[in-house]
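User: Can you help me understand a structure? I only have the sequence.
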Amino acid sequence: MRPIRLLAVPCTLLVLLGAMSFYPAFAGRRVATFSIVGYDPVTGDLGVAVESRFFAVGSVVPWAKAGVGAVATQSFANTTFGPKGLQLLEKGLAPAEVLDQLVKSDAQAEQRQAGIVDAQGRTATWTGAKCNAWAGGKTGKNYTAQGNILTGKEVVEAMAASFEASAALPLADRLVKALAAGQAAGGDSRGQQSAALLVVRDKGGYAGYNDRYIDLRVDDHPRPIDELQRLLELHHTTNAYADARFWMDKGEQDRAVKIMEEATRRRVSGAGAKQADQGGAYYDLACFYALAKMTGPALANLEKAFRLNPTLVPYSLNDTDLDPIRDDPRYKAWVKDAGAPKK
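Assistant: Let's start by predicting it. Here is the structure, written out as tokens:
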């Protein structure tokens, strides 16, 4: 029988393998990070913004459900805190009561950190005694901010101050602005890697089929918060239709139209804007002018849209947003070759 040869294994690998054998969290590193959870009592929006020196932090930390609440779970994160926390909120428990139950049922609670806000604006945060310093949190009206392995408490304080000072902005902008303030104050002591923003709104998702109003993730980037801000700006301009529709359905048509006017201005003047995209911007604006019974502006923008993107002509025939101008002679002339709308 041939002797068995033992492979030479580097000491560093032996240490790593040994760590894997007795430390079950090896496959799930500590989510050392800073986050802010917030609520907007005007729109009902709930959301979480988070940044970390951790790959794809958005897949772990943020959880939210429209009309119920939002949860951030981090620092050797127990991801069951998200769905379980939302279930308990939906049963009527206050955030502090929810955290109490979650912590008591978790044998490793001292290594966890979490923040919760409900749809009434009530808040609570938890930082276990074994979270790596600096670790802590701060709650205020409609928000909770928390973080661990930070450069110091000034990170959380900066997030809180930013959120409190930005009440005039939409919730998504307030949350990302707070992250930027936390980073400017020092942020994660290990550096940056990923960031995410989740905001829920009743029927705020695509075509109203779910509540995922904004779901943006920057999984690996040298300046993830800057990139998150860029993506949020892109969301505002390309998804302004959903925002405007929200206010239109609430009867605030002037506010809805202003949102579309500003979005159109940005979309058509942006660097590298393509002709077809510009046509789409004018078309969307025309739809809202039509819904607001502003026939003149609706037709003027629709004419621009058709000229820039002729494929919108047949598309318009089945768009109910344009029903208020359907019988106008100018519209009928434009779509004549595409086939008149069926009565």
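Now, to help you interpret it: Residues 25-238 form a domain with the Glutamine Phosphoribosylpyrophosphate, subunit 1, domain 1 fold (CATH 3.60.20.10). The two ends are 90 Å apart (CA to CA). Let me know which part you'd like to focus on.
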